[in-house]
């Protein structure tokens, strides 16, 4: 590592700037053609599109500004502080983003992205403020880094990028496969629904379980035996849940034995801003109390149909959840009483059969994604510290 040099991040940046937010009271500032990135979209990822867009007028009348593609963006405020992204399109951002356009003669943007990804704990420790943890452009500019020569930076980044390229491809395949299932669902069960089909409630199809959290202060309840899923884990899931950030011990599982869910249970977040997200667990698990789950009496027949149905009624779930309050929540009784159209067994069997191969491919892809992510996360600190070197 004798060829690596110590410097500040700002030393290798051509430009470092935050963004801005056009006045939300001015409708003419929004729904334009300028992508506008919110800090909550920064999730250690590549940005190909943004949730919102602003107009040229909004850009001119705020601190928002164009950011060149392939810049490295660091979230500075709140829950995402310290997380990073690369924008693969030119865009603008809000003021909670530190946008770093690199001097290409000094640093490779992919390398800097992975370096900062590997430095999350250091960035997190730099945050200040009692109510909200904030970074700022000055702190990030003065962030100490160790840089190998440019060619070695590119070689290291190429190894890690190749893994992320494969991960992105598998995610896109899963999205395509799931879109096909959703298309079949809409055609068969919405556009071509039959009047003679019976209307039942979710409780007619199985058992509804509201999760429970064992005491977090008792270390004996926590271990590596059973998945413990919370709404926060849903960020890691597409359709299926294979893993969780935390796990229970056998003792912890016994403490909440009435809440243990078998594989193929359908989990729905039922409180807060993330309410209405739906996944199918592929392992035995326990959830916290912010999730209602449905253990189907006949999951071989109903699993795919009920999953797609619950995904399709998000507006209804939201309406039930609000119930005249500002905090959306669906309690167990309201969840049990959600009505669902029940087609004939023949139609359900056909739908389950058609989607079976796609779902098997999604499961295979998801397992491969997890393997590749584990490999990337293992290599990352070794490559960024120089413990493992890349031949140039």
Radius of gyration: 24 Å
SS element count, helices: 11
Low-pLDDT parts are: none
What would the average pLDDT be, to the nearest integer? Answer: 93
* Helix content percent band: 25-40%
Number of strands: 20
Task: Describe this structure as you would to a colleague.
The chain is an alpha+beta fold and 392 residues long. The chain has two domains: 5-147, Adenine-n6-DNA-methyltransferase TaqI, Chain A, domain 2 (Alpha-Beta Complex), CATH 3.90.220.20; 198-342, DNA methylase specificity domains (Adenine-n6-DNA-methyltransferase TaqI, Chain A, domain 2, Alpha-Beta Complex). The chain contains eleven helices and 20 strands. The protein has helices at residues 56-60, 109-117, 120-126, 137-141, 150-191, 202-205, 250-255, 299-312, 314-322, 332-336, 345-385, and strands at residues 5-8, 13-17, 30-37, 45-47, 52-54, 72-75, 84-87, 92-93, 97-102, 144-147, 198-201, 206-210, 222-229, 240-241, 246-248, 266-269, 278-281, 285-287, 291-296, 339-342. A five-stranded mixed beta sheet has the order 2-9-6-7-4. Strands 12-19-16-17-14 form a five-stranded mixed beta sheet. The protein has a three-stranded mixed beta sheet with strand order 5-3-8. Helix 5 (150-191) packs antiparallel against helix 11 (345-385). The longest helix has 42 residues, at 150-191. The model has no long low-confidence stretch (mean pLDDT 93).
